[in-house]
Design goal:
Chain lengths: 322, 322
Amino acid sequence: MRGEDDIDLPTFDDVAAAHERIRPYIHRTPILTSETFDRMTGAKLFFKCENFQKAGAFKARGASNAVFSLSDEQAAKGVATHSSGNHGLSLSYAAGRRGIPCKVVMPRTAPEPKKAAVRGYGGEVIECEPSTSSREAVFAEVVASSGAEFVHPYNDPRVIAGQGTCSKEMIEDLGELDAVIAPIGGGGMVSGCCLTLSTLSPSTKIYAAEPQAADDAYQSFKSGEIVAYDAPVTIADGLKVPLKERTWHFVRTYVEDVLLADEDEIVDAMRLTWERMKIVMEPSCAVPLATILKNKHLFAGKRVGVVVTGGNVDLDKLPWMK
Amino acid sequence: MRGEDDIDLPTFDDVAAAHERIRPYIHRTPILTSETFDRMTGAKLFFKCENFQKAGAFKARGASNAVFSLSDEQAAKGVATHSSGNHGLSLSYAAGRRGIPCKVVMPRTAPEPKKAAVRGYGGEVIECEPSTSSREAVFAEVVASSGAEFVHPYNDPRVIAGQGTCSKEMIEDLGELDAVIAPIGGGGMVSGCCLTLSTLSPSTKIYAAEPQAADDAYQSFKSGEIVAYDAPVTIADGLKVPLKERTWHFVRTYVEDVLLADEDEIVDAMRLTWERMKIVMEPSCAVPLATILKNKHLFAGKRVGVVVTGGNVDLDKLPWMK
């Protein structure tokens, strides 16, 4: 691994440029509030609904920024990625908008609706085993044979800058926030929040919310170096991947704390959100609310932005179905 | 029944007054769009998300208007209603905001979460048999014994004026619309649309969408007089009740047509909306989209407002669960 000085990190100027670049291809998503949740938590919560985003998740921001940053020559060879779901879908969406090929390596165990959706946007799905190691091996072959531009799901400065547009909209729409909390998997959204908020609103505390069953970011944060698991098991299937050097830079520099929730707490918070806020969201998105409910002392009396990261779920396999 | 000349009908001035009166107690709900649905229908659809409304349905508008219109003397005796669900919930919500008693007669077969929610807002649930005749009989006793002010779910000028604030917001936010479509049960929302649009946007065509299995409004519209069923069976359980004289006035005067969808079409449209728009909504709310998909010629190339009426569903009994 290269030393920190060698990493190409995005700046806030990249976020601002990304916002202009991707504006035609993304939704400025609505922000919902809930008196019920405010009463339950003692905080004033603002839910940024990226489940309503194009392709159903915030990942459309980073993917669109990467795809529309390419030179025509690069673009002609297409793009490729590995992704447990939403990034692959979003890259396929963005590539489709630019009219270029997109190859997506996905675990064979990924939800069928996600594979179908990638194909629906015109992307090609290439299956691998459900582990980080298999995914990376299969992917290396795909890139070598096609010459496609690799767009990593999160360890890519174009992607991080794109994700940074989400918290930029929150600050523009809401003004000052005491805290922002987002789920953490690879750390792309959290890094985008760090990048944007450290410029626009440096007093805003940034929390990362993680499933206890895949607590690699928590372990990294506490130990001071990247901890990675090969194939953790959690209902929050968007959050299984480990930090990489770029996201680790932002997490260790700007994040206030990594908060954990167990599987039951995640499912309870997910169901509660469906019932009370009437939105369809993924289990991953429930992790922030689950951790806020466990750590009310951190948020009581505060204005808190909560990133609802995506809404791509299999309606035949909801976690409360028996 | 009294002749038409004797009916007290609300005017658009009542809608404007209602909007000012209820503003502190309701959400100005967001309007969502979907490229997927626009592509599928050929129309430009604007979904007014009353599933995000207070108490989970548009009924909070009419109920709040009725409750906050009462004199202090009337209010002290409380309010009462019969309702298959959302109106009872909303009246209980509004009464709770004013701090007055609320009695709700509900079919014993109504979803448990709806009964619990009425009680959660402080209302009292009184059960009846699941038929219009039983509901009305039990209710008469309740009103006689308590002296509470009857707020009918829809056949009440205060309620209709309150529901009219929904399409007022649509026109304010969207400008001109070629058509507005809403589900029809008793006709409160459709009447509110008629009342508002006939003043603010008389060229907008108003469509009512109804389950074929409970097509009393359709039969009324075609025959020219109110047709009522006692206990129709449909998945769209908010739409089982018949028109009454005030809503019938608006339906026959201003509605362009009543469009029908069968049960499978309703469930398909409901699931499609959950998957694509990522919103939790009731089966009743899927009837407009189901009818638009069946009648594309009426809507192609048009700007169409679609009222998503409510989001109170039992997540353990989704219609696609086996």
